[in-house]
Each structure stands twice: as C-alpha cells, then as structure tokens.
Amino acid sequence: MTSPSQPPAGASHTSELILGLEDRPAPLIGILAALQHLLAIIVPIVTPGLLICQALGVSARDTNLIVSMSLVISGIATFVQCRRFGPFGAGLLIVQGTSFNFVGPLIAGGALMVKQGTPVEAVMASIFGVVVAGSFVEMGVSRILPFIKRLITPLVTGIVVLMIGLTLIKVGLISMGGGFSAMADGSFANGENLLLSGAVLGIIVAINRVPVVWMRSAAIVIALAVGYALAAYLGRLDFSGMHEAPWFQVPMPLHFGLDFSWSLFIPMLVIYLVTSLEAIGDVTATSKVSRQPVEGPLWMQRIKGGVLVNGANSLLAGIFNTFPSSIFAQNNGVIQLTGIASRHVGMWIALFLVILGLFPAVAGVIQAVPEPVLGGAAMVMFGAVAAAGINILASVELDRRALLIIAVSLALGLGVSQVPEFLAHMPAAVRNVLESGVATGGICALVLNWFLPAQPVASQAAAAASKKGLTTTDAA
C-alpha cells in the first residue's frame, strides 16, 4: 500500500499541497477555502430540485421547502463524508449534493403521473418513497463493491452516464425556452426567454476563455448573477416563494408522505447502481489530488464509506422531502486550484450549506430566477454530464463487442425516449419502465455486457497479431 505521506502512483507535481488532509487551517483560511467550494457547488445543488418542481407544477411554498432541504441535506452529507463516523464517510475533503442523474427519469415519470390525473402532492409522495427505497440499494452496493464492479463495468457506466446527459438535454432546452408553463401560455421560446437563456449560456462560454482561474471556476455563478440582473430589469423576478415561506425553515420530515411506484423505481434502480460506481471514481480522484493512496485497504475503506454515505444521505433526502444526492467531482478541481486538501475545510462547507438551507429567504431568492435563466446554465451542466459519459467510454477499448453494445443500447434508449408510442402494445408494467430512455439503455447495456463476454486479453493479443500477418510466436 502506498504510504499516506507520499503521493500516489501517477500523481504529478501539480498535486503539491499547501495544506494536507489532516492539517487544520486557520479559521480565515478555512472560510475562504470553503467559499471557493461553495461557488462551485451552490448552483448544481439547487438546480435539480428547481427543475423537477417547475416541471411537475409544485407550489411555490413547497418548492421553497424542497430547495431549502437540498442545501441542508447536502451539508449533513458533506460533514459525514469529511468527518467520518465508523463505516460512514470517506474521511476526505468531499462535497456531496443533489444529483443531476435522477432529474430526467423523475421528470418523465412524474409528468406522466400528473398527466394521468394524479395530484402533484401524491406524485411527490411516490417520488420520495422511491428515493427512500433506492437508498437501501446503494447502501447494500457499498458492502459488495467488488462484485458490483465486475457486473457494472466502465462500458456500462459510460453508456448510462451518456444516456443521462443526452436525455437531460431535452429538459435543458425546454427550460431555455421558458419551461412547461411557457408552453401552456404560448410564450415558449419567445424573444425575451431566448435573450435570458442565451445571455447566460454565452457568458459561461466567454468566461471560460478568461485566463483567470478563479473566474473560470465561478463561471456559472457569475453568469447566473448577470442573468438575474437582466431578469430584474425585464421585471421577470418572482418572489412569491420567498413571501410565502417562514423566516426560519424547521425541517419537516415526510411533508408529502411516502408512497411507491414501480414505474419510477426501476429507472431509479439503474441510476442508483451507476451513481455508486461514479462515487468510486470520485473518491479515487479526491484521494489522488489529496496525496492519499489509490489502492490497498485504506482506499477500499474510503470508497466503501463514501458509497455508504451516498446511499444513507439519499435516505435522509427522501425523508426530508428532497432528491437523491451524490459526490461532486468538481470540488477536486477546487482542491487543485487552492492547494488545500484539509478535510477540516469540509466542516465549514457543511456549516454554510446548513445555514443557507435553514433560512428560506436564500431559497426564495434563488427560486425567483426565471426558468430561462436557469435553463441557460442547466444546458451547460447537462452537456457536461454527457461529456463525462463520453470521457468514460474513451477509457474503454472500443473493440467490435464494445461498439455493438454501445450502438444497440444508445439506439434503443434514445429511440423509446423519442418515440414512446413504440411501447404502446406492451403490458403497462413493462411500458412504464421502458419509457425511460435511461432505464432501457442501461438495462440493455447490462444484459449485453453479461451476454457478450469480453474476449480474454491473450485472445485479443493473438487476434491483433493475426491481423498483422504474424504468428503468436513471432508476436512474442
């Protein structure tokens, strides 16, 4: 096992740290470092809740509660990940927040239930019941990671993450045009909505060309601030959610109650499995930039603890009326930027998140953002999810088997999401599951990955040698 005091294999000089994992920064340094992390995470934490609530028609007051609890639950998870309690937590500077992975299936499944006449409150009860049920799957996965890693290979993970990103792009484009409410009143994609969303999208792209590193890391926050100001100038800010909210938000468990829906659960099950595998990569990346081992017993202990908190925090999220969470990868960039890997900084981050969540005025100010402004930023973030899937697939050897699995999985997943009528004559239980493109593509990738076993390395070498007109002996 690599010594914790030495950089892991493959670490570069860019991983030199000012403050190591166990170093305690002075309060001012800790606060400034925590604020850097907040700039990178505040928008991704609140955006999934806002998009789901806007798509399903959740009331302003309930949306405020959900967004507030997103911040509180993210703060609790961040604290546990950094502090570590027994088997819970990775013991690294890890930030956890609401996951984008679940947005598409929850909007698709929830919108279908609303369309069928189910009251919004009952839909939210089903969603949170499914969130709670799925959390136990992820906690169970944390105990059998070696087996799951053999079942869900990087090929499967890359396909599912790519499918999540591609299906989310539709959600982002609808938000850029003004959302479902704009579709209903005929203002969808009008000049004002496109001005707001286009300005945010353009500013994010422009700032990423600026050589100042801290500005690039805060590009989304800066762009949203500009979009917010432009929306205020156009008279588009809506503070009804803030006016209806109490000045202090007491956490209210099971505000909507709990219910269950199999049609929501199966797509979520696939995503919970993939999110577990993503967490392994994120914890490993954080270990690497923190100059901690990336193999051996300590590393395995960290990833088991990280995945366990992923699931346990989603359990808390469902009970306290918000959506599943996952480990954020972008904070690894902040560690590299600041040179501070101290897990004690995570305590400040957790404190700030909980404080922001307990005062609903903060959620109300964020909630006042018009959907086109949010859509401009969401489009970039959703595209980044798809790009992450491509990046995972780029690490896989794309032989004929891999290309066949990718082709069939993407074709069926994207196909049924675009033409759900294809499933019209299937049994209702099957149709409700497969209408989610992520579920269809993910199940297909899992089955094909198992049904078409990978060619042994020795056979691959022999085949490559044969193509070159060489014998196995000559190749040796």
Rg of Cα set: 23 Å
What strand line-up does the widest sheet have?
1-2
How many β-strands, per DSSP? 2
* Low-confidence runs of at least 5 consecutive residues: 1-15, 470-476
Tally of domains: 1
The run of helices and strands is HHEHHHHHHHHHHHEHHHHHHHHH
Quote the average pLDDT. 83
* SS field, number of helical segments: 22
**What gap, in angstroms, lies between the N and C termini?**
32 Å
Strand content: under 5%
Give helix % range. 55-70%
Secondary structure category? mainly alpha
Shape: globular
Q: Give a quick account of the main beta sheet: strands, pairing sense, barrel closure.
A: 2 strands, antiparallel
Descriptive report:
- The protein is mostly helical and 476 residues long.
- It has one domain.
- 70% of the residues lie in helices and 1% in strands.
- It contains 22 helices and two strands.
- It has a two-stranded antiparallel ribbon with strand order 1-2.
- The longest helix is centred in the N-terminal third of the chain and has 30 residues, at 27-56.
- The chain is globular and about 55 Å long.
